[in-house]
Structures are given as C-alpha cells and as structure tokens.
Automatic annotation (TrEMBL):
Xref: Gene3D superfamilies: 1.20.58.2150, 2.60.120.1620, Chitobiase/beta-hexosaminidase domain 2-like, Glycosyl hydrolase family 115
KW Repeat (keyword) present: no
Location of region: Disordered: 761-780
Alphabetical keyword list: Hydrolase
GO MF annotations, alphabetized: hydrolase activity
Protein name: Gylcosyl hydrolase 115 C-terminal domain-containing protein
Ranges of residues in domain Gylcosyl hydrolase 115 C-terminal: 781-954
Domain of life: Archaea
Length: 961
C-alpha cells in the first residue's frame, strides 16, 4: 500500500515540499474526525511534515487523503463516483473499509487516497490501517515503539478492502488492576483523577482498541476503582471513539456493584429479599445509558465474583435467577425504543451460574451466551448443536491474565499464542462469533498476546493458517527490525515453551485462597542430565540472546524492546533461578556440600534482578510508566525469598562424589556409586559431581579403569564442586552389557564410580516384527533405557491418517515446542468399535523386553466441548485391541486434579499393557475426538523408574537421523 518512491499511478502523500491534506466531513461521526486527526499526527511522526486536516472540499488541490463514512461524507461520495468501489456492497457490511487510490475525484484534485468506511468504526479502522502501513505501530504510545524516519510516502495504485470481521464484538476487560493499571493511571498518567480511572486514560485505551480493530470494553471494576460511569467524561469518551461499553460477568445491567452498591443504604444484595431496591438500582443505570451503543450483561452473581446469594436449594436458585433475568428484560424493554430482543445482551455461565444453566435456567434466545475458559486458556464449554441455533449467538471470555485458584498469573503474560489460536479457532468453528472478550489484566505486559487475540478475532481463518512463530516474526519485523525478526520470534517461542511447562508465577508449587506455603519444586536436580539445570540454561540462553539483540538494535528501539520482550524473559529467568537455585542449595546442604551457600546467594541475587528490572521498567520514558509494573503482584508468597540451605561444617577439604540419579543425604547414600546405564545411540553423557564437604582447595584426578570410558577431564582443582561428564567411546566398547569403573582421588580419598553400559546394534529402518502392512519407511526407533521409553509426540515413526487427523502444532509442547493435535477442530468423533477403521493414528516403534508395561501419555489439559461429550484418545501396542481413555478433568476450580493439570499444563494419563515378546514393538495413539493434543509419551518397564517434572529425556536412537 505504501512505497517511498513514485510509481505508475501512485499518489504522493508526502513528497518534497508537497504534503497532501486530509479531508474529513464535519457531518461525519466524531470518531472519523478523531481517526483522521490521528492519521495526520502519524504522518508527522514518520516524515516530520504535518498535513492539514480540513472539512472543506474547496480547499483541496492536487492530492489529498479523503477519510469518511459512506453516507456521511460528501468527499467520500464524490470519490466513490470516480472509483470502482461497489459502495452498496460495502455499506451492507459492518465495520468494513476500503483504502486505495482514485484518479480525478474532483476538478481540483488530480488524485487522492480514499479511506471509506461502511460505518463509523470501519472508517476509523481504515485510517489507522494506513497509519500502520506507513510505519506507526498500534503500540507507539502504550509500548513506546518508535516510528521510522521517512522523507517520502506514496500510496500505490490499487484498492484494498478489509472486513467484515470474523467476530462481531471484540474487546478487553481491564481487570485485577489494583497493583498496576489503576496505580499508574491515578498517580502517574492522570493524577487529576485520583480516585478513579478517567477519560484521559480511557481515551488512550480506546485509541489503541481502534488501532487493533477492536470495539468493546469491559471497564476496570475492582474495589478502590471508581465506577466507569461515576468518572465524569468516561461515558462521553466511549461515544466519541465509537467503543461499545459492556460489563463483566458479575456486573449486571452496567452496574459496578463493588463501588456502587452501598449495603448500609441499599440493603442486602439478595434478590430474594431486596428485589425492589435492586430493580431501582438497575433501572437508574439503564435509563442513563440507553441512548448509547451498549452490551448489557444479564443475570446476577455476588458483589464481586462470588456466588449469587439467595435460594437454599438448587431449584430455588434456578427459579430466583430466572426471575432476575425476566425482570431485567422488562427494564431493558421499557427504556429502549426498539424491542428488547434487539438490545444486545449477554449471559456468562461462569462458575456457579453454569450449574444453574445446566439445571433448567432458560436464557432468552436472543441473549448471547458467553462461554468462559478455565482461567488458564482452555475452553471449558462450547455450544451444543441445539444451542448453536440461538439468534443471540455465542461468545468467549478468555483469560490472558487471572487472579484466583489455584494460583494467579497476572504478572508476566505467558499464554502461548499457539494455545489461543487452537482454542479460539475451535470455538469459532463451533459458531462462537458474536463476542470475544480477553481479560488482559493491566494490559501491560500482555501487548503481544492482546494483539494476537484481536488479529484472530478480525480474521480467524486467515491468522490461524500461520504458525504462531511466523506471526511473532512478522510482529517483530514491524515493531523493531526485520533483520532481527526471526531471532526475536525464536526467543519468544522458547519463552512460551518454558512457561507452558510452568509459568513464572507458579514456581512456588503453592496455591491461593488461602495462600499456602511454598513447596519443593519438582524439577529434578539429579535426574535426566539435571533437569533443573537444563531449564535454567534454557532461560539463560534466551535472556542472553535478548540482551544481544537489544545491543544490536538502534537506541530508539531499546525501551520498546525492553517492555515487549526483554522484561518478561529476564524476570521469568530470575523467578525460576530464585526457586530452583534455592532448591539446589537445600539439596546440597543435605549432602553436606560446601557449595550450598553459593546457590543460596544465586537465588537471592536472582530476585534482586527482578526488583532492578521492574524499577527500570517503571522509570523508562522519563517515568511515564511509574507504578505500572510490580515486582510482586499482590505480594503473594511465591514472590517471597525462598528458604535456602547452607553448610556450617568447619572441617578441612573433604572429597565426596554424587552421581547422576542420586539425591542421598550425606552419609546415607549407597556404598556403591553407580551411574544410570548408558545405552548406545540413545543416552547422552552422564554426570558425576565431585564436591567438597569442608573448606579449602581439593586437587583431584579421575582415572578410567576401561579405555572405552570417555572422561571430559581427568584432573583439576576446586574449592566447592566440579561436575565431570562421562561418555562412552562405542567403537572401543565391548559388544555386550558390561560395567566399567572410574576412580576419583583427592584430599586423601579415592572413590569409585561404576559405569554400566548397554551396547546396541544399529537399528534398521524396516517394519515391526510381524508387521504385515507394507507402509512407508519407518524411522525413528525408541529404546528402553533405565526402565523407560521416552517419546516426543512430534517424532512419530509414521502417521496414518483417516477420517480424523493428527497434525503437528508449533508452540504447544513443553519440551520440543511442537505437539500433535487431533483434527479437525470441529471434526468427526470415532466410536470405540470403529477406532482402527476411522481414527488416525500415530505410530512409534520402540524396543523393549517382554513383560508388563505402563504407558503414560502426557496431553494438554484441553476440555471436551460439552458436558455430555467425551474427550478421548485410544492407545494400543502391536496388534492388541485399542484401549480408550477419556482424560477430561473439568471439575471446576476446586477440583484438585484440574488444579494440578493447569499448573503444569499437562494431563498424565496411564494405561497398562503386556508385551508378549522382547524386541521391536509399535505404540499407536488414535485420534478419537477433536482437540486432543498429545505432548509426549513414556513407556515404563520398571515401576521403580524415577519420575521428574517433565519426565525422562527422549530415548530415540539418534543414529537413524
């Protein structure tokens, strides 16, 4: 749409001394003038040249930008007559626009850039789209993204049309604003409104929503925030900007009960005992706002996200809520000129109201049913086939930020865009296209996730076609520098992967309501190559990569980069380091390691880095964001310094050894130090920790008794500890199982470590023993190692598609980054008696001995679309009949299993099987129902095989790669 050199048919916007005027009709909607004026500001930001904004066609000459709404703008009507735009077709669509060039639209104009909207928001979207094309980010103000410097701007010859949006109402809920958004607004951005969030703040937010092609707001509503309607100017600002105002699931009829209901003067908030006063309260607000474009929430809950009072039995509560809705409809009907069936309304069956809906509550057909997620990004419920026929349609209430059980995630937004895409695309395919509402908390630092949410809402199918990583690269190219876009996308993809495994706010392994003490993290510091250390090293890599990218960016981009990328990564790393290094200090203190103190200090230093990063965040842009970011939201226990361990023994240097897989307390470990078996082609080197239980320096040597043992080092000195990696030179190793020895000497002691190995012949790429199906070439092969066969879902030996499908989804695995999802999103379901014929299957060839095995499948905690619908996969080994597993755990926020699932982003489902022979076998996973997402599988051949947080590393024979 925009170039910087003239071309055939292009229209100069800024060229040399020439700057095109911007025309907007004075009779157009007010938001058209706002958007046209902002476009002028944006052109000046990019070029330094300011266009004149005029409502007079007579003042225009040579070139101009014509902005307006069809039917409300004389200039637009003249341009349409000279263009090929089908004005009638455009007018019939909501929130749509065209942007393009028109020749000779007026006698005084040689050409113009036309921005024509089908309605007021369509016009605004068109103007802001041109702003984005010239290089102004939607986040130019909210994240201080700088604009490029250009001397010329030309609009290319063409017409682009956009709209209508996929979803009718697309909005944000500013929620849980206590420690960020409100404090910043009241103390920094708009101190003239000390007890509320006023129009100066909301106008900034409304402009952002229009730049993101959104249209709806649920205002902030926590205790201490004055009601949106009680702050002078808020209501009028929404009308000027064309923003639809609604209220959350617990604020019926545009009333903020936390702020506006006074128990002393109004009485009890109970419709069973105080209906007359509550009706008056609702009626007053409806009468006040009925002339504006609104979304009315109907129904009733407690004052603040609590259960509706009144009614002793379920039947009584259903009857009471039915009465509430019926009375609310009468109020709406009385105060609107149009019938109540045409007044936009919604009902959100959230928490306890879902039970009432299930048990007979009749919600009028024209009311939009808004289905909430489970507060962690997984949709609990979607409309049934019968419900999809409702004239009011359906919506989703989706959390990018959450305050509540089992634990908040309000701080560092880490909901993966890939999860948002999968869940919301699934909802859209089931007819959920009336309202999408995102709980964004304080908005910052959820900028990326919010924009992705709105891009999906605007064009669901188009955006869902691309991977989340591709989208992140496009976003980074726009915000910063195309040269670094892929690097930034990769860094963010890894950030989301690590947080999918465990969010930074959840590394205390504790809960809220009530706040509980922190527990021991379950990332293992002794198993699987030191799982905890590998996690910290992954965070270290992306933190250092982000810092390196920042240094290569021009100075003007660095504040925005810190807000949008670096702060989240740095603080996520520090939270994990604070928890896991404290855990290590306690473990090492128990083993008597002198080094325990060093890890305790690292834990404390990590938390200090959070404070420093937060201070930098708030002080950036000359203090513009002071108060926006907190280093410890709600001062939850997870943000407290964790307990650490230290060793106080004053003895001299004392050598001790701990091997991988051993966490014994000092003096209680096995007398024979033995590494886990190293399997050829599968296992990586194992580690041996040499450590000091006293003070002073230890000179150490390591000697391999067998020439096939590969030692990373054979001597050195240390004061606290030294990690020695042990590998195998397989060309020199025996052909059968054996055990080698390492002798480690120092400080007057000599200790021995056993090194068991299992050589294997190079596997072939053929089929499974007894497999009669010709099939494609079959690789890879997974191998039993130390009692387990570990499989990443995206490494199948082969995929056999059927009526259902398995497809890789980038960005949804806690380990490799890619999981396998059952498709189609709203596709067929497979009966248990037709699994082999109709269900797609993932096949994984593995080798193991005969005997009993347990298969653990790790899946994302997605839910079935309705209460009556199963959520299943099936599993089989070799020719055995498939075992069907329904793994949904959708028991509500008090369900312990659901709580475990969402905190670890994983369901662990197990089945028992029997291997009738040793050798090669095939594990098959069948896609029976849509939206089943498999992350990995582990086949346990030994009940004593140690568990860890993520499970064992993949035991694939890498020699076939």
């Amino acid at each position: 749409m925009i170039t910087h050199e003239p071309s055939d048919g292009s229209v100069p916007i800024v060229a040399g001394e020439s700057v095109a005027d911007i025309y907007v009709d004075g009779n157009d909607h007010e938001v058209a003038t706002i958007a046209a004026t902002d476009l002028g500001d944006d052109i000046e930001r990019v070029t330094g040249r300011r266009p004149a904004v005029t409502d007079s066609l007579a003042e225009l000459s040579e070139t101009a930008v014509i902005v307006g709404t069809i039917g409300r703008s004389a200039g637009v009507e003249r341009c349409l007559q000279a263009s090929d735009v089908d004005a009638a077709a455009l007018t019939d669509e909501r929130e749509s626009f065209v942007v393009g060039t028109v020749d000779d639209p007026l006698p005084s104009l040689e050409s113009c850039v036309l921005i024509a909207g089908s309605d007021r928001r369509g016009t605004a979207y068109g103007a802001y789209e041109l702003s984005k094309r010239i290089g102004v980010s939607p986040w130019y103000w909210w994240a201080d993204v700088p604009t490029p410097d250009r001397e010329t701007l030309y609009a290319t010859e063409d017409l682009e049309r956009a709209g209508p949006p996929s979803v009718r109402y697309r909005g944000v809920f500013v929620n849980d604003e206590d420690f960020g958004f409100r404090e910043w607004a009241q103390q920094t951005h708009d101190p003239a409104t000390p007890d509320g969030i006023g129009p100066e703040t909301y106008e900034r937010l409304f402009e952002l929503l229009l730049r993101l092609k959104a249209n709806t707001i649920w205002p902030a509503m926590h205790e201490g925030t004055k009601s949106f309607y009680r702050c002078a100017g808020n209501r009028e600002a929404a009308e000027r900007y064309g923003i639809v105002v609604g209220t959350s699931h617990c604020e019926p009829m545009h009333r903020n009960n936390v702020d506006e209901w006074d128990r002393e003067t109004d009485g009890e908030w109970n419709y069973a005992t105080n209906a007359e006063r509550i009706r008056e309260y609702w009626t007053d607000r409806v009468a006040e706002v009925a002339g504006q474009e609104n979304l009315f929430t109907v129904g009733m809950r407690g004052i603040h996200d609590s259960g509706m009072p009144g009614g002793d039995t379920l039947e009584e509560r259903v009857d009471l809520l039915q009465r509430v809705i019926d009375d609310q409809r009468e109020i709406l009907d009385e105060h609107h000129e149009s019938p109540v069936e045409t007044v936009p309304q919604l009902f959100c069956p959230y928490k306890e109201t879902l039970e009432l809906y299930r048990n007979g509550l009749e919600v009028p057909e024209d009311v939009c049913l808004v289905w909430p997620d489970d507060n962690f990004g997984y949709l609990r419920r979607l409309p049934t086939g019968e419900e999809r026929a409702r004239s009011g349609g359906h919506g989703v209430y989706y959390h990018l930020s959450y305050w509540g059980r089992p634990h908040d995630h309000q701080w560092l937004c880490s909901v993966p865009p890939a999860l948002t895409r999968e869940e919301l695309h699934r909802a859209y395919r089931r007819g959920v296209d009336t309202l999408w509402m995102a709980n964004v908390g304080d908005l910052k630092p959820a900028e990326k996730e919010t924009e992705y949410f709105f891009e999906l809402a605007w064009d669901v199918d188009g955006v869902a076609e691309r991977s989340a990583t591709d989208w992140l690269a496009e976003w980074a190219a726009r915000e910063f520098d195309p040269a670094h876009a892929d690097e930034i996308a990769d860094v963010l993809a890894e950030y989301y992967r690590l947080a999918l495994a465990r969010k930074p706010e959840h590394v205390g392994w504790n809960a809220v309501y009530p706040n509980t003490e922190k527990n021991e993290p379950t990332f293992s510091a002794v198993d699987h190559g030191d799982e905890a250390r590998r996690r910290l090293e992954a965070y270290e890599r992306i933190d250092e990569a982000a810092a390196a990218i920042r240094e290569e960016l021009p100075e003007k981009y660095r504040t925005a980069f810190f807000h949008l990328v670096e702060y989240q990564i740095r603080c996520a790393r520090a939270m994990n380091e604070g928890a896991l290094e404290a855990m290590r200090s306690r473990l090492y203190a128990g083993q008597g390691r002198t080094s325990a103190a060093a890890y305790a200090d690292r834990s404390r230093a990590a938390l200090d880095r959070i404070d420093a990063a937060t201070e930098r965040y708030n002080a950036s842009s000359n203090g513009k964001w002071r108060g926006m970011m907190s280093a410890s939201p709600r001062d939850l226990p997870v943000f407290d310094p964790p307990a650490t361990g230290r060793v106080t023994d004053d003895q001299g240097p004392t050598l001790e050894v701990a091997v991988e897989g051993t966490a014994a307390v000092a003096g209680t470990g096995p007398r024979t130090r033995r590494l886990p078996t190293i399997v050829q082609g599968v296992d990586r080197p194992r580690f041996v920790d040499c450590y000091n239980r006293g003070g002073g320096t230890i000179e150490w040597t390591a000697t391999a008794a067998d020439d096939w043992i590969d030692l990373e080092r054979t001597s050195g000195t240390f004061e606290t500890d030294e990690r020695l990696w042990v590998g195998v030179e397989w060309d020199a190793a025996p052909d059968s199982r054996t055990t080698g020895r390492i002798r480690i000497a120092g400080a007057g002691r000599e200790l021995e470590v056993a090194v068991p190995i299992r050589p294997r012949e190079r596997p072939t790429a053929g089929g499974v023993d007894g497999d009669s199906e010709p099939g494609p070439k079959r690789t890879p092969v997974f191998v039993e190692s130390n009692g387990r066969v570990a499989i990443e879902a995206d490494h199948p030996t082969t995929v056999r598609q059927a009526e259902t499908r398995w497809e890789p989804v980038d960005g949804l695995s806690r380990t490799t980054g890619t999981a396998m999802a059952g498709r189609a999103i709203d596709g067929p379901r497979v009966d248990a008696d037709a699994i082999r014929e109709r269900a797609a299957r993932l096949e994984y060839d593995f080798e193991a001995d005969a005997g009993a095995v347990r298969v653990e499948v790790q899946l994302l905690p997605t839910h079935a679309p309705t209460e009556s619908t199963p959520h299943r996969y099936a599993v089989a080994i070799d020719g055995a009949a498939p075992t069907v597993v329904d793994f949904d755990a959708n028991g509500g926020e008090h369900d312990p299993q659901w709580q475990r699932n969402v905190l670890r982003s994983s369901v662990r489902s197990t089945t028992d099987h029997e291997l009738d022979r040793g050798g090669r076998h095939t594990l098959s996973l069948y896609a029976m129902d849509p939206s089943v997402v498999v992350d990995r599988a582990v086949i346990y051949t030994d009940d004593d095989a140690r568990r860890s947080y993520l499970g064992p590393r993949e035991t694939r024979d890498r020699r076939l790669e």
